[in-house]
Amino acid sequence: MAAENTVTLALRPTWRTLAANFWKERGAVIGGVIIAFFLVVGLLGLIGLTPYPVVEQHAIDRLSAPDSTYLFGTDQFGRDVASRVMKGTANSLQVALLSVAISTLAGTALGSISGYVGGLLDNVIMRLMDIIFAFPGLLLALLIVTILGPGLDNTILAISIVYTPIFARVARGQVISVKEKDYVLAARALGKRDWMILVRHILPNIASVMIVQVTLALSWALITEAGLSFLGLGTQQPEPSLGLMLSSNRALAEIAPWLILYPGGAIMLMVLGFNLLGDGLRDLLDPQGRGR
Amino acid sequence: MKKLTTLILVLLVVLVAVPFTSAQDNTLILGRAVDATGLDPHTQTAFASLRLLELIYEPLVTTDQDLNLIPVLATDWSFSDDGLTLTFNLREGVTFHDGSAFTAEDVIATFERILDEETASAAATNYASIESMEAPDDLTVVFTLSTPDAPIVSAMASTNAVILSSDVIASEDPALVTVGTGPFMLENWTPDDSTSLTANPDWWGEGPFVDGIEIRIIPDEASILAALRAGTIDFALLNDPLVATLLIGDDSIDLYRTPTLSYNVLQLRAAVEPLDILEVRQAISCAIDRQEVIDTAALGEGVVTGPLTMASFALPTDELFCYEKNLDMARELLATAGMEDGFTLPVIVANAEPPTASSIAQNIQSQLAEIGITVEIESLEFGTYVDRWLGGDFTAAVALNGGRIDPYTMYSRYWQVDARFQETAGYLDDTLDQLMKAGQAETDEAARYEIFAEFQQHLAETSPWIWLYSGYTYTAAQPYVTGWTPNASDALYFLSAVQVDK
Amino acid sequence: MVRYLTQRFITLIPMLIGISIMVFGAIRLVPGDFITAQLGTEAGMLSDTQRASLEAYYGLDVPPVEQYFSWMGNVLTGNLGMSIRQGRPVVDLIIDRFPATLELAIISVIIALLIGIPMGILSAIYRNSALDIFARLFAMVGLSIPNFLLGTLIIFVLSVYFGILPTSGNYVDLTEDLSLNLQQMIFPALALGTSFASSVMRMTRSSMLEVMSEDYIRTARSKGLHERIVLQRHALKNAMIPVVTLVGIEFGYLLGGAFIVEQIFAIPGIGRLLINAITQRDYALVQGVTLFIAVNFVVINLIVDFAYTLLDPRVTYDGR
User: Pick from B297, B362, B379: which is nearest to A150 by CB?
Assistant: First the structure.
């Protein structure tokens, strides 16, 4: 394993060549396009550029099927489903991005300190991570949100906690594998401070592995968010949420299938986008990882 | 690997070849979403528990379809002229499931148990006026009351006042030992999964006509519907109007709609600014089209209601203050209060229980926006919601509150001095207190009607709460299930009259 | 190897203690208590004396620290306490409910393997063919559908277009009626197994490709061995090693993470038991079931680790 990593590092490509190679990764490009599309849709939803205000109720047009007035139909309050899917997309992405950002930061910090310092601290940190890791993700998120109370902020916090150990593990493994490298030893010999070595020399070297991990974690975070919302614990009404639209309209699916098909489709496509992107990036940045 | 593949293929063939089957005997298979939370009839308050226990136990009296009191274990009853003595004559020849005879001793032991603080019966306050009890003979019980208490008889028409055997009370835990006098006997209870009941062959009444009842817990009402259609269950209890409406116009399943006594309400706490201003509360009342709430939140499944939901006391809603949406008047009232620029109103709501609560809050939010009131919805998990609600820790709340057949029993906890839920109610005035006191003491029916008519008008006008609507409970049955009469107090007791002819 | 084993077991102890504290603390941090969960708003009608007597009846009047130690003491003797809601030992309830979860997980694994492995192998052999592209597309989509979404769609399609429902609360044990049981299990298992099949397919494919490019396969081929024999004798065996790991980890996840699917398909498994226990604030039951799930998860991961060491001659744990 160690020998393989040396190869990776020795051949660490520059960002310029990476960008050039990116366009050759068909999956990554498709994934990127899907994500870009949903980012735009979400952004429009976020700033309110939706066909109708997301909470506006048109009591007369309750449960109308998709047509030119309401592209994706309306729900039981006569709210425009298309607008709500847009805002729901924004909320889902927001939760996924923020929670993965937090867990990346926390996990990388904990993992690299753990790996770099070693010893007792390493043991304590990693055992704590193991404890968190001992629970299936959705179950742990569910427990945390039940304690903190439902809502967007708490969902973000819960998902952050759930995915921190993964980043900690990956970061720790990488740090351990590079910390004995010549350039790190050299820096140390030159009397550079530990944190400087970590930030200047070690972190850039593990970035590529982390980026892949981040992209894949985004797809898990989306699923977890949708799952929590599905259970009624994520984003709260009247704020739209794809998972909640799915579960609260399940009973109506028979007479108004558009109420579950569009939000369901949006969740699936977004997750697909991140998966494709993550896969492609892995092939690109981490040839040693599983891929093709 | 090859063997495994063969095995799976064989299994798949078996799977396709065998059609869906269901039991062919004369047992009624009943589906519902929520299971009982426990078996002690005196302490259980969840509707889900009562629906099971009312099959096993019987009270002295119950109510018929029109909510009139009818005898069960008592055959008749009467008040003394001063209203301080209440005498019940008991039914002869009734036995408990363990074979022992039902006598006056059991009635006395039962009410002693309910009133005992150790029992922790939440319903005990309804019988607090009982001072002493005696049994002149085996089939007569005399209650001596500390104060005239007309509603006490209808309060006894409750699963929380069912008669237990005095032997069980003395030596067993009724949470574990279920010995009642009812039409069905509990055979097995697997919480959150299934319950089996067998018919009581020695039941005093006519029936039951089925061999037993098997209750299956199907956690999702949409799945209950599918089970009905697939024919795997005979009978179902439904609460979600969204699901029940799917059965309207479905000829293969009989849907029974029963108006409930419980009511959906927007509780305003007049103790909190700016809801302490009368005009602000009235403006909210005038700004809400209650029918629109029903149409959106419950797909039209419900009736607009005032404070009282029982037909015998409810005033027509046009006799109540501002039951027609009137935005001009609402704005005027807000201006009088100096709040013409609107304000922010935080509303708490339970996120899943009942499923319609969050929908009601969302529609009210949309309607109140028209007069500049910004509703901020705070969705809480049910347990947290109950904590906040009981502690009066909210400005406004969307609630589904239970109703009773008697108006006094229904509201005594809210609208009188020292009421247990005074904090939650958040409002009280002398008129309300006096009307409640008069309503408790008065035994003349016409006079009581007048008292509670004024009570309703006063509540609507002072608008401490905005009463919205009463929904329905639904029972659905296969066409071969006959003899079912749904009851407004939700009782499954009358399943004793049901026949199954598959 | 032995040293590694003992080491792993020793580190397991503080971890299990940590898990138990977390499990114990978590449910007590949830607002609301058992009595409110039981009585709803009626809890407010209780007088202080009444409430105190209820708390004493349910054993809720013991201080938490004391509760923890007596609980741990019991856990060590195999007693997970009593469910206050159901009045039965937690262990019995787990024994009651676990078979359904286990069966669901096993069927999901079978589905995943039946679909994933052949597809992965074919995909690797006929690399870049139409078949390969289709298989990879299937896997990508399968991986991207959350199981509760797939479950919802399955129920929607079955009930609207076929008028049937896989389960309707009439769950039958497989010992009672195998065919009916399988009818009920197949759809939820499909909901769980699809994304699982996708990962198995991807893993099989990539590890086949890796193995097929290894020297010994090239040697075997150059020796003129029949392609089928090369695949069966050499490539397949080695390519399955990472798949075994994947299956183990996923299996551990399925034993505790399938609760939404159990809920929407009305399967009386431990996931549903746990969700109900949380809503009911049935402390002992929540503790017992989460502990059970976590320990399962840890033990399965440990077994997977060992299996990996045993299967793959290249990995040793004696260094480091």
Answer: B379
